[in-house]
Amino acid sequence: MLDQFDNVVRVIGLVLLVLGWLLKSRNTMLIGGLLIFGAQFLGGELNSAIEKAGQK
Question: pTM of the predicted model, to two decimals?
Answer without folding.
Answer: 0.73
